[in-house]
Amino acid sequence: MEKLEGYRVLVKTNCYAGNFEREMCAFMTGCIGECEVGEEFVDEGVREKFKGFIERKADDNGCFRPVEVGEDSNDFVIFFREEPSSEQIELMAERAKLFEKTRPYKYLDEDFKFLGIEVLQITTVTKRKGYDKY
């Protein structure tokens, strides 16, 4: 039995994402975590387009955030409750390209590049173990 857990938007870059994932997420979606990191990068018009779509999950310290570093440490994922629309995906890609071009976060690596976006559907699978009759 499969259960849909939600969606993740995987943002691919060429640099260690742990140095900027919260700031770039705020710039791309207008969403920040309880820690308020990235507040200065929020565009209210962008935030409205993602309101109610993005969820927050607790990090290792119990701080709820809309983003975390991915399995490949150059990537990060943004948590979505439901599948993002094509308009939302296009807006995130446009904002990511603008983040790369304008470099609003002064601590970005010199060689930082945005490489793309991928939408992931997250499911859990529950299996029952069958037993033969005796």
Describe the protein's architecture and organization:
- With 134 residues, this protein is of the alpha+beta class.
- The chain has one domain (2-125): Alpha-Beta Plaits.
- The chain has helices at residues 21-29, 44-50, 86-102, and strands at 2-13, 57-58, 64-65, 67-69, 75-80, 114-125.
- The longest helix is centred in the last third of the chain and has 17 residues, at 86-102.
- The protein is elongated, with a radius of gyration of 17 Å.
| Second-tier CATH architecture | 2-Layer Sandwich
Whole-Å distance between the termini? 26 Å
Largest sheet: 4 strands, antiparallel
Total discrete domains: 1
What's the number of helices?
A: 3
**Side-by-side strand order of the widest sheet:** 4-5-1-6
What is the global morphology?
Answer: elongated
CATH topology: Alpha-Beta Plaits
Radius of gyration: 17 Å
Calculate the mean pLDDT score and round it. 92
Q: In CATH's first tier, which class applies?
A: Alpha Beta
Tally of DSSP β-strands: 6
Strand content: 25-35%
